[in-house]
Design goal:
By secondary structure, the protein is α+β, with helices and mostly antiparallel strands. The chain is built from 17 helices and 6 strands. It has a 6-stranded antiparallel sheet, sandwiched between helices. It has 2 domains: 182 residues, 2-Layer Sandwich (Beta-Lactamase), CATH 3.30.450.40; 198 residues, Hypothetical protein af1432, CATH 1.10.3210.10. The structure holds fe (ii) ion (2 copies). The site of one fe (ii) ion has 5 residues, from loops.
């Protein structure tokens, strides 16, 4: 397909932009929103690649990337979780655009006018094995006119696959789309912050439930699901939709710990059988938080909360619960595919993160020891297909681990930390 805006009447192009902007409302998580914005910006201009940066304090934080040419190398999936940022000043192209608040179109980045304050850094192309030619960099502005980010798209392609400059239509219409998209970005950031605030409450009870831990578990679960869905030929729309929801729902896996007593959660010794039995109810309390709702996200969050300690071979908990609200009793454990897929995925993501993280009572396990354990537990603790998907995206899992590192200022050495997974 060649440049949608070039091939259609301007009115059709505007209508299309409005329709796409409206469809952003279906998405919940910020990563899914950025993925769709970049996909549509590239579709509208037929661009090969693109990146989104979001403003954080005085910097532009690298937030999302797509590249059709490099996708086959697997590097792009990892790069989504990079931690690069640029100071907002006129020394970089994205910084210049954020500072001026105006779009910038460059036909050939290797021949930028010498009087411009910025230049293109060819090292980026060299390290990626890519050749950037034309580039359109657009500020994303809120309804108040404040720049909240920058979209940079590169190398529009003609039908033969050759790179061409951006059309006049793309230069006119993409800034309109970018500004419309800012509402969705704001909402996605708010959703993520809201979830992290809920987690803060759980962290007060259990210091191992940190914001970094849940962001890792959410991202691991999203990427494991994505791979599982690709392995099962799940249709792309459904795959992206579920990937969006599972990230948020998995972040909330242990939010039910707010219902468990501090005496148990912070007990500086092994739990008695009776205390451990009470601890198991954090799954039920979590599910209660999401019951009585018709939202798909709430249903998935409830599924994960109640089932994330079930095991594939039927030795987990809490099993079938007779009644969620009135005097629930721990039931017969679920097994195999009776456990919802999202919970089977989150179970592996959560255990992997616990083992690969430092705790007061243990250093992080080395990767080879964790991978050996995960492989040995495939078919007993974990769903074998989920293990296969996890191993296939292990590079991305590593990139996620680096992106969401624990804040070392936090008192990780809390002497009262207790882990239920090791009971
Ligand atoms: Fe849990
Ligand atoms: Fe957890």
């Amino acid at each position: 397909m060649v440049d949608y805006c070039q091939q259609n009447e301007p009115i059709e192009c505007v209508k299309n932009i409005l329709k796409i902007s409206e469809s952003l409302g279906e998405l919940k998580d910020i990563d899914a929103i950025l993925d769709r914005i970049l996909t549509e910006s590239r579709r509208l201009s037929d661009a090969d690649a693109g990146t989104i940066y979001l403003v954080k304090n005085d910097s532009l934080k690298f937030s999302y990337v797509q590249n059709d040419t490099l996708i086959k190398t697997g590097e792009v999936d990892k790069a989504v979780y990079s931690n690069i940022s640029f100071t907002i000043n006129d020394q970089s192209i994205v910084g210049y655009v954020a500072m001026k608040g105006r779009s910038l179109h460059i036909d050939d980045v290797y021949n930028i006018e010498p009087d411009m304050p910025f230049h293109f850094n060819p090292a980026l192309d060299r390290s990626a094995g890519y050749k950037t030619t034309s580039m359109l960099t657009i500020p994303i502005k809120s309804s108040m006119g404040i720049v909240i980010g920058v979209i940079q798209i590169i190398n529009p392609k003609e039908e033969t696959g050759a790179s061409i400059p951006f059309s006049k239509e793309a230069q006119t219409f993409l800034p309109i789309f970018a500004n419309n998209a800012s509402v969705a970005i704001d909402r996605g950031i708010m959703t993520r912050e809201l979830v992290l605030r809920m987690i803060k409450m759980a962290e007060l009870r259990d210091p191992s439930e940190t914001g970094a831990h849940v962001q890792r578990v959410g991202a691991y679960s999203a990427e494991i699901y994505n791979k599982w869905a690709l392995m099962h030929d799940v249709d792309e729309k459904e795959r992206k939709h579920m990937k969006d929801l599972i990230r948020i729902a998995a972040m909330l896996h242990d939010v039910g710990k707010v219902g468990v007593s501090d005496m148990i959660l912070k007990k500086p010794a092994r739990l008695s059988d009776e205390e451990y039995a009470k601890m198991k109810f954090h799954t039920v309390y979590g599910a209660r938080l999401f019951s009585n709702s018709t939202s798909e996200l709430d249903a998935l969050s409830g599924d994960i909360a109640i089932n994330h300690h079930e095991k594939w071979d039927g030795t987990g908990y809490p099993g079938e619960i007779n009644a969620l609200h009135c005097d629930p009793k721990i039931g017969q454990p679920k097994k195999g595919e009776d456990i919802p897929l999202a919970a089977r995925i989150c179970a592996l993501a959560d255990v992997f993160d616990a083992l690969s993280s430092k705790r007061a009572y243990k250093p992080p396990w080395p990767d080879d020891k964790i991978l050996k354990m995960v492989t040995e537990e495939s078919g007993s603790h974990f769903d074998p297909e989920v293990v296969d998907a996890f191993l296939a995206v292990f590079d991305i899992i590593n990139a996620i681990r680096e992106k969401y590192m624990e804040n070392e200022d936090r008192n990780l050495e809390c002497a009262f930390e207790t882990r239920i997974d090791e009971q």
